[in-house]
Amino acid sequence: MELVYVALGSNVGDREAHLQRALDGLRATPGVEVRRRSSWMETEFVGDGPAQGRFLNGVAELATSLSPAALHGVLQALEIAAGRPADHLRNHPRELDLDVIFFGERRVDTRDLVVPHPRWRERAFVTEPLRELGVDISERASGEGVALLTDADAVGARVASWLEGGCRIGLVPTMGSLHAGHKSLMERARAECDRVLATVFVNPLQFGAGEDFDAYPRDLDGDVEVCRQARVDAVFAPSSAAMYGDGFCSEVGVGREAEGMEGLQRAGHFGGVATVVARLFALAQPHRAYFGEKDAQQVAVIRRMARDLGFPVEVVPCPVVREPDGLALSSRNVYLSGDDRLAATVIVRALREARAQFRGGLRDRDALVARARAVLDSEPRCEVDYVELRREPDLLPLPAGPVDGGRILAAARFVGGERPVRLLDNLSLTVEDGE
Ligand code: AMP
């Protein structure tokens, strides 16, 4: 027999009768003993569903010989018997809600059931009754939260258990020093997938000689906290040796999508990006992988790589997240000097100028680029690497002459601070994102 804690709640009809009947139903179930229950407590609804009545809540301590899946099936049947429709919408009023909080010391990670319950600590209507029943909450809480994995085998094992449980996996690859742009990717993955794996790895393969690999900002504790807030399930933060293993020497080649722009400025960069992302796709076997449109050429390179090598993953581009003054969030922004920080908005102003001109009727490729360039050149602190107008969605070059859309991309350096900072940004001429 294993000791199980089940949270009970009701906010429709005769709430106490629903909770009582649920306990009666559990008592009548072979293989289940109801040992004790907390007092019932009344709580306000919390969450993002429609306004609704107060809940009556409590926690029951059971002993059971059933498996977690079998007990979960019993709880679902009791919810339905209480009048709750099988296709009940999340966070809507309900006759009966039964959640497994703890099942002995077990960890369960299937699509339908996660134990310990992922949000038990945030809910006073669970923690208070648990305390009343004498459960040592602080001990239970230690070791929970987002899992930090540092070696590839641990990722493989976790992914295998997620896949076995029927979960759809979302992957968010990053180089850490996480900000609201990264967080937006994680939140999208959280909303669309059953499990989210974020990776934090400053990938040496994608930095050239003389680039800022050593100086790239690193803050693993802060990163894990951002992941926790975004309700990521696991963070993979390996060393280079753990990522690539002994004797690693295979690399992914890249082609057309990697030509020009970043590919020209940073020789070998996209080969390094494609290699690490392919390695992550193989390891995490994601159904969906989330990338920021801020690095639009990277998205095009990865999409091509996934298609060419046959990874069964959907590459999901996500809109650029900006500061209130328009500057695209970047981990490198912390290195801008005060004056460069103010000057750096020139990039988005230049891109917006090109878009405004396009909307005003200007259609010539080179004239649109020249308008953006003139804005960039008006800022003496800014050293422009490139401004280009490319076609969507693969970002291949557009022929000179009239265009009916496209994406305008720029990279520029600001050298007034402690170290030079290179920033990228881009805007679609036709899509509303990044206004
Ligand atoms: P990085 O850590 O810079 O490699 O970025 C990791 C992922 O976050 C990439 O897919 C980036 O495109 C994305 N990202 C970075 N900055 C932003 C931003 N401001 N808005 C949206 N996504 C971003």
Considering DSSP H and I runs of 4 or more, what fraction of the residues is helical?
Answer: 25-40%
- Biggest sheet: strand arrangement: 8-11-10-9-12-13
Structure class: alpha/beta
* Proportion of residues in extended strands: 15-25%
String of helices and strands: EHEEEHEEEHHEHEHEHEHHHEHEHHHEEE
Report the bound ligands by name, code or SMILES: adenosine monophosphate
Number of helices: 14
Overall 3D shape: elongated
Amino- and carboxy-terminal Cα gap: 59 Å
Stretches where pLDDT is under 50 for at least 5 consecutive residues are none
The tally of strands reads 16
Largest sheet: 6 strands, parallel
How much is the average pLDDT?
Answer: 93
If you compute it from the alpha carbons, what radius of gyration comes out, rounded to the nearest whole angstrom? 26 Å
Task: Describe this entry's structure for a reader.
By secondary structure, this protein is of the alpha/beta class. 34% of the residues lie in helices and 21% in strands. It is built from 14 helices and 16 strands. α10 (269-284) packs across α11 (296-309) and α13 runs antiparallel to α14 (365-377). The longest helix is centred in the middle third of the chain and has 16 residues, at 269-284. The chain is elongated, with a radius of gyration of 26 Å. It starts with a strand and ends in a 7-residue tail after the last strand. The structure holds adenosine monophosphate. Adenosine monophosphate is lined by residues 174-175, 181-182, 184-185, 291-292, 294-295, 318, 320-321, 328-331. Residues 174-175, 181-182, 184-185, 291-292, 294-295, 318, 320-321, 328-331 line the site of adenosine monophosphate.
